[in-house]
Fold this sequence. Notes:
This protein is an all-alpha fold. The protein is 44% helix and 0% strand.
Amino acid sequence: MGVHPGIVNGQLQHLHEIGWEYNREMLVKVRDFVTATALTDGWGKLTGQFLTTNNKRSN
């Protein structure tokens, strides 16, 4: 079908068909991919890329 098992698992969790504790091993760590292009990490902390870019502009 071409759909990652983690996507299916996440959808089932979102729809409350299964609990959040089930099939955690199917989930993929994506924080590094997301924060590579984001300004903050989702908790209000600036990412390394933004800090580097911002420091270059201010010099």
